[in-house]
C-alpha cells in the first residue's frame, strides 16, 4: 500500500479528495492535516508517507512553510484553487499540480505519474525527476493579488503587461495595477509564450492589448492599458519581437 496524507484546511475539499482517493485500492490515507503547525508536528512525530496531497494556501500560512521546517523525501501533488504558485511548487518535491475542483481523470493521471517514479519501476533520482516534471509545468492562467486586507483573483486574460518598478513586479489591467510576488524572470517561465513577450528588462507585454507599434527611431509599443512609462523594445530583441508578432 502507498501511504498517503492530505494537507487541506477546507473540510468539503478533504471529504471530496478522500472519496476520490478511495477509488484507488493501492492508496491508504493515513492522516488528514489542516494547518502548517499541525503538519509540522505530525511530520516530526510520525513516519513520513510516500505521497502527499497538499493545498497551498492554509489558514496559518502556505504549505511551503511546512517543508521549510521539516525535510521529507515524499512526493507532493499540490491541490489548489490558485495556480500562481506553480513555479515554487516545482522547486520542491512536487510531481504535479492540480487545480480545484479536482477531476477524477486528472487525479488518476497524477497518481500514475507518481507511480512511474517509484524505484521498483525504474525511477532514477530526484534531480532527473524534477527535470522531467519541469518540462510539464502548466502555464499561468490566474493570479491572486492583495488589495489591502482583501484578496482578488485576476485572470491572465485581463493582464495587458507585467512591469518592474522599485524592485516590485506589477500587473496592469483595465481597472488598475496590482503588485505581485513574482519576478519577471519567473513569469517568463510560466506565461504562455505565444501570448506574452518580454520586450526589455522591465516589461512583459500581452499581444491581446497591443494598440500601436512605432518603428522609428526605436520600436515602441502602445498598449490599451499601461503605466505612464513608454514601452520600448530592446534592440537585441527586435527580431524575436517581430517573429513573435508573426506567430513564429
Explain what you see:
The protein has helices spanning 11-21, 36-45, 64-69, 86-89, 104-116, 126-134, 184-190, 238-245; strands at 2-7, 27-33, 51-54, 57-58, 61-62, 75-80, 94-99, 142-147, 150-155, 161-165, 168-172, 177-179, 196-198, 203-206, 210-214, 220-223, 231-232. A 5-stranded parallel beta sheet has the order 2-1-3-6-7. The chain is of the alpha/beta class and 248 residues long. It has 8 helices and 17 strands. The longest helix has 13 residues, at 104-116. The chain starts with a strand and ends with a helix. This is LytTR family DNA-binding domain-containing protein. Residues 143-247 form the HTH LytTR-type domain. Keywords: DNA-binding, Phosphoprotein. It comes from Epilithonimonas ginsengisoli.
Question: What characteristics describe this protein?
Answer:
248 residues; alpha/beta; 5-stranded antiparallel sheet; 8 helices; 27% helix; elongated
The succession of helices and strands, N to C, reads: EHEHEEEHEHEHHEEEEEHEEEEEH
Oligomer: single chain
Can you give the helix content as a percent range?
25-40%
Strand order of the largest sheet: 2-1-3-6-7
Q: State Rg.
A: 21 Å
Largest β sheet strand count, sense and barrel closure: 5 strands, parallel
The gross shape turns out to be elongated
| Count of discrete alpha- or pi-helical segments spanning 4 or more residues | 8
Q: Total strand count, please? A: 17
Strand content: 25-35%
Arithmetic mean pLDDT: 85
GO molecular function: DNA binding
Domain HTH LytTR-type: 143-247
Modified residues (4-aspartylphosphate): 55
Keywords: DNA-binding, Phosphoprotein
Amino acid at each position: 500500500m502507498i501511504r498517503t496524507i492530505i494537507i487541506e484546511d477546507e473540510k468539503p475539499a478533504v471529504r471530496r479528495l478522500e472519496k476520490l482517493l478511495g477509488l484507488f485500492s493501492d492508496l491508504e490515507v493515513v492522516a488528514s492535516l489542516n494547518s502548517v503547525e499541525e503538519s509540522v508536528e505530525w511530520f516530526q512525530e510520525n513516519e513520513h508517507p510516500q505521497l502527499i496531497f497538499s493545498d497551498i494556501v492554509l489558514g496559518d500560512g502556505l504549505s511551503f512553510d511546512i517543508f521549510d521546517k521539516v525535510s521529507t523525501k515524499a512526493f507532493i501533488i499540490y491541490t489548489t484553487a490558485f495556480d500562481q504558485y506553480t513555479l515554487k511548487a516545482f522547486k520542491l518535491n512536487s510531481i504535479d499540480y492540480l487545480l480545484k475542483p479536482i477531476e477524477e481523470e486528472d487525479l488518476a493521471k497524477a497518481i500514475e505519474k507518481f507511480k512511474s517514479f517509484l524505484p521498483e519501476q525504474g525511477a532514477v533520482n530526484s534531480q532527473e525527476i524534477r527535470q522531467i516534471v519541469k518540462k510539464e509545468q502548466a502555464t499561468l492562467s490566474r493570479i491572486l493579488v492583495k488589495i489591502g486586507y482583501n484578496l482578488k483573483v485576476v485572470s491572465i486574460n485581463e493582464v495587458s503587461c507585467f512591469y518592474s518598478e522599485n524592485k516590485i513586479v506589477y500587473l496592469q489591467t483595465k481597472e488598475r495595477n496590482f503588485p505581485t510576488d513574482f519576478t519577471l524572470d519567473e513569469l517568463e517561465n510560466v506565461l504562455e509564450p505565444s501570448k506574452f513577450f518580454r520586450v526589455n528588462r522591465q516589461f512583459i507585454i500581452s499581444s491581446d492589448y497591443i494598440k500601436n507599434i512605432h518603428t522609428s527611431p526605436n520600436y515602441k509599443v502602445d498598449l490599451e492599458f499601461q503605466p505612464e512609462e513608454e514601452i520600448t523594445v530592446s534592440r537585441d530583441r527586435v527580431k524575436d519581437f517581430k517573429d513573435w508578432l508573426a506567430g513564429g
